[in-house]
Amino acid sequence: MPANFNLPFVLSVAGALLASAVVAVLYVWPFVRAMPRHEALRLLAAFHAFRFLGMNFMVAGFVSAELGPDFAGEVGWGDLIAATLALASMAALTWRWTIAVPTVWIFNVWGTLDLLNAYYVGATRIQNPGLFGAGIYIPALYVPLLLVGHVLIFMLLLKPGSEEHAS
Questions:
Q1: 66-70: long-range contacts, CB 8 A cutoff, minimum separation 24
Q2: Domain for residue 163, yes or no?
């Protein structure tokens, strides 16, 4: 087993991912798939507009100084870009711009890859998840919720049928 493998942390992330998926399947997906597509995409993008929280990894004292500025910067700036793209998607969907759906695609691909990259970089560079300090809840709770949100957005984007209705 790798030296940086931390079973309680991995189980915490896995549990949050499972719980997020179950809640999404039972409650969120039935609701959003019945909505007009643009409205459903805008609602799901709104949750991602708060990804600026990742910038806190660059705030002194929020995480351990041992975490490293490279990791904190990569996570923080990636999340800020994702939040900005989510807000741009919401605006494009609200005003029915012709680029609305392509904007959502860009946001969703970027946001998903950014989260997967953060997990990969964290798993390969961070020896102790305790270095996240107060930020431990971001990868342990918030990121699984975001990943499930991205899956729901992909499901809406890939769903054949009416441009206006998600179902």
A1: 66/131, 67/126, 67/131, 67/132, 68/125
A2: no
> How many angstroms separate the CA atoms of 28 and 57, rounded?
29
Q: What integer pLDDT is reported at residue 163 of this predicted model?
A: 55
Number of domains in the chain: 1
For the four alpha carbons of 91, 96, 99 and 104, in that order, the dihedral sign comes to: positive
Predicted pLDDT of residue 164: 52
Give the tens place of pLDDT for each residue, 31-80: 999 999 999 999 999 999 999 999 999 998 999 989 888 999 999 999 99
pLDDT recorded at residue 127: 79
12 within a domain of the structure (yes/no): yes
CA atoms within 13 A on the CB side of 165: 5
CA–CA dist 167, 155 (Å, integer): 11
- Mark out the alpha helices in the chain (DSSP H runs): 7-23, 29-33, 37-48, 69-94, 100-125, 137, 143-158
Residue 166 in any domain: the answer is no
| Selected residue with higher pLDDT from 124 and 158 | 158
Annotate 45-65 with DSSP letters as a single string.
HHHHTTGGGGGGGGSBTTB-G
Token pair for residue 154?
Answer: 């992909």
